[in-house]
Amino acid sequence: MLSRRMERGSTSVALAFAVFLIVMTVVTVYIFWAKVWWFPAPINDVGHEIDAQFMRTLLITGIVFVAAQLGLAYAIFKFRDQGQKAASFEGNNTMEIVWTIATIVLFVGLGLYARNAWAEVHFMGAAPGALQIEVTGQQFVWNFRYAGPDGKFGREKPELVSASTGNPVGLDPTDPASKDDIVSPVIVVPSGREVELTIRSQDVTHSFFVRELRLKQDAVPGMEIHMHFTANDPGDYEIVCAQLCGLGHYRMHSILTVMSEADFEKWMKDQEAANQ
Amino acid sequence: MVTHENGGGHGQHQPPSGFIRKYIFSIDHKVIGIQYICLALFSVFLGMGLSLLMRLHLAWPTTHWFFFKGGLMTPEQYLALVTMHGTIMIFMVLTTAPQSGFGNYFLPIQIGAADMAFPVINMLSFWTTFLSLVVMVSAFFVAAGAPIGGWTSYPPLSALGESAGPGQGAGETLWIVGLAIFCAASLMGALNFITTLIDLRAKGMTLGRLPLTCWTWLVTAILGLLAFGVLLAACILLLLDRVAGTSFFIPTGLVITDQVITWHKGGSPLLWQHLFWFFGHPEVYIAILPGMGVTSHVLATFARKPVFGYRAMVGAVCGIGFLGFCVWGHHMFVSGMSPYSAFAFSILTMTIGVPSAIKTFNWLGTLWGGKIQFTCAMLFALGFVSLFVSGGLSGLFLAQPSLDLYLHDTYFVIAHFHLIMGVAAIFGMFAGAYFWFPKMFGRFLNEGIGKVHFWLTFIGVYWIFMPMHFLGLAGHPRRYFDSSAVTFLQKLQPVHVFITIGAILTISAQLLFLYNVIWSLFAGKEAKEENPWHATTLEWSIPSPPPHDNFGGLEPVVYHGPYEFSVPGAADDYIPQHLAPNLVRKA
Question: Which of A255, B113, B243, B354 is 20 to 30 A distant from B19 in Cα terms?
């Protein structure tokens, strides 16, 4: 048998619970509001769209979060056992229908609204004339290949891959088109010009992630996956691997450098010269 | 009343006398339930221990610890911890305790049956699960150590053997074999649950009078039956790729450290992801649904009110179960899957938020106008509601592919699934433990220690997992050994320290629970009456602990719905399900 004391709803427990929920809610909302930890600013137009969709989602989930936690806190405090008789209602069909429809509209509507940002990156390919760069992931480095002056990517063969002798992607020297291909451990792109990446992997699944582009794409062995972006702001941005690829996963890192068209032409010339 | 004879064909009413038949190879669902709970309890402390090692390393990566060879953790040790923590927690804790543990013990009693439909299969499924745990844990003790592929074990990393990394040799093979055995065990359990619930309900126990716990155990069993079969097949294919030279998941022309792999051709890494997540997403609901059932049950009992919207709750549970099979692609938005499928999966995933929201509204409706009693069980059930909201809402971000492009595989995901399928599910189990302990052992868990345990745990889990959202917003990828190679991660280090302090606090608090369980088993306050909580369901109509065949060879008859609390005109504020209408005292 429970003691009478235990059967009662203790005011101090109710108060502590309610206060905890309120404090937790306020602190969480504050940290989101003040953006104490946040994304870096995006460097492409899609990034701005994605951030806007994030904010819409944050607003809706934020309202639900605050309402639900504070509602719970209120109910816990208000309806603690003080010797009253509990109500006996078993439900309310109108309310069930209202909140079912409301959440369908809200959640599915939000999902449909998100279509644009996704479509821009994924439903449409890059425009003709986009700068072509091939991205190859391998344990635990990224390599980036440019087609060189002839504008053609040469043949690659797995059996020619040899990181130690400076042929990390396995370029076939017997193919004339591969002679002028440029392979770089960092990726350099001109600002304001569309870039199309062909993402692939030599060994296991990796993931190409650049925060400032709001872009992440797995590099899957056996597949060539196309992504495109236009970076607007010159600067250096970190590339990390976001898919567990083995013990060096955490150090699979490179840099995306965005530079002006003129600087990019110069960089390309230097690479071509070094390649002779 | 008639003598109990059920479809299982085991009319035995005398408990077996030998120790081995009674406690080891028992076919009594109650003993098997306790065996599962013990297995889960061992596993949860093991899993927490592994996470503590990870947290210590993440907070202070250069500090020397006596428990690592040479004082420092290596990347492969860290990834082995990641893999084994996830695997043990998801399979050995979140899949066993809520369903096979509490479900095994209380499903037959709550529906008025003497045992499960197939008692011998029940025993087999426990011992098969035990074997799977032994095989899996043995991966720690092979030469190259435990696997490093994460609990999702994506090929080719998991399929190529030791050349892909340490731990990917014998350790990975043991992991796959252990998991396959676990699938077999879960399939047996699922069949047993479904059959029991359909066939062995007592007279009057219509579907509309089933406690919500039973509804969630039923839907969970159906999910298990459909999902574990697929995972079993996937595990066998992966094993064949490793040991028999097949190429289900390994494409042509891979090069590992300059060596070409010529003996594998034509496989697809994405095939594994589809198979794995076809299991993996329902698995989330396998973990959380029973917790939802227990929460509904406990909220009604200690708010002294009927569950608000019982039919809507049943509908939501079934809706979650069905939709749970339609959303696996949201784990694969960045995998290279078709962007059109991704968009379809996204909308379906947003839809699954609807039944989840219905449940939350109904829980608040259950509390509204109630007479809330703060037992430890109730505190954990209330905590469940708060955590379910916090963990569920972040799912709305991850369900949108355009937002997932950034958040995928970051700490934001870790925060999301730990809050909802990890911690909320465990709160459901704690609520069940404090609620049912007196029934199972005839003694109460200590409520004083329990309250301290609750507060430390509740504060602790928010302390640990809320900040992880912000690590994710800052772009911190998961499964990273340390931050040394990435500049933007280095300024996040104070957050790691903060989280680790919370983890130490929370994990320490679980020792209180362990102490409470052991102390209360022998010295806890005795539960002298059958129904100390004044609850309504059938388990409270029999002695504590229940006799061998639950109802003493009699078949109970059910007259009432599961949550008849504070019924107008009745003298008591609860009407047990088995109480004949003429015995209900009028006010």
Answer: B113
